[in-house]
Amino acid sequence: MCLLKRTADGDFFSDEELQYICEELQANPSFTDMTIRYGTASYFNRIKKVVRRDRIGEVVFCVIRPNGKIILTRCKNYPESIYRIPTGGIGHNERIIDAIFREVKEELGLAVKIRDFLGVIRIRFEHGDEHALFYSYIFILDEIGGRLLEDASDDEISEIKEVDVEQMEAIVGSLNEIKGKWHDWGKFRYITSNAVLRYLIKARSRQN
C-alpha cells in the first residue's frame, strides 16, 4: 500500500491510500475542495510551517459516546465558550487508519471503532501569491472503551462537552464568528466541525 508522499508541487495525497481506506471500511466518501484566503500572514505562515515540518494533514474524529452524545473539546487558551470537534495530526509516513486510533487514544484516552468515513476536505490556504494545501480526513467513531481524558497521554485538551445535534449546531456556528486574533483559526476549525454537523443532521433525518 502506498503511503502519502510529497508531490512535485509540495502537495500530500495518495489515491492508493484513499482507496485502501474505502475498501477497508466499505465507505463511499466525498472529496471536497475549499479555500480560505487570509488577509494577514501570521496564521497562514503557521499552517505552512506545520505542513512542511510536522504533518501531512489531520484526522477529524467525531466520537459518539454510549449515551449518544457527541464529544466536543476545548483547550485552556481558546476564547471563552469555544469548543470544536477534536482533530489530530497525521505524521509523515503514517497510515491514516493508524493515525485515527492513535490520536483518539492520545487526545481523549478512548478506544473506538469506526462507524463511517465521511471523506476528505482539501483546504487551500491562501495569502498573497502563496498557498498551502492541507487535508482533513473525517471519521465518525463509536466509543467502545477507555476512560475519557483519564487515559489520555496528551494533556492538551482542558475540557470536554457532551452535546446532542441541536446543541452542537449553535456551538459550531460560533467558530465562524470569532473576532480578534483567533478569527483565522476559527474559520479553519469551522470547516471541519461543520462538515461533521451536516453529516449528523442528515443521519438524524434519515432515522426520522
Kindly summarize this structure in a few lines.
The protein is 35% helix and 31% strand. The chain is of the alpha/beta class. It has a single domain, classed as Nucleoside Triphosphate Pyrophosphohydrolase (Alpha-Beta Complex).
Describe the structure.
This protein is an alpha/beta fold and 208 residues long. The protein has a single domain (29-207), classed as Nucleoside Triphosphate Pyrophosphohydrolase, CATH 3.90.79. The chain is built from 5 helices and 7 strands. The protein has helices at 15-25, 41-53, 96-108, 165-175, 183-207; strands spanning 30-37, 57-64, 70-74, 87-90, 110-127, 130-146, 159-163. The strands form 2 sheets. A 5-stranded mixed β-sheet has the order 1-5-6-2-4, sandwiched between helices. A two-stranded antiparallel sheet has the order 3-7. A hairpin with a 2-residue loop joins strand 5 and strand 6. Helix 4 (165-175) packs antiparallel against helix 5 (183-207).
Topology readout:
Elements: H1 15-25, E1 30-37, H2 41-53, E2 57-64, E3 70-74, E4 87-90, H3 96-108, E5 110-127, E6 130-146, E7 159-163, H4 165-175, H5 183-207
Helix pairs in contact: 4-5
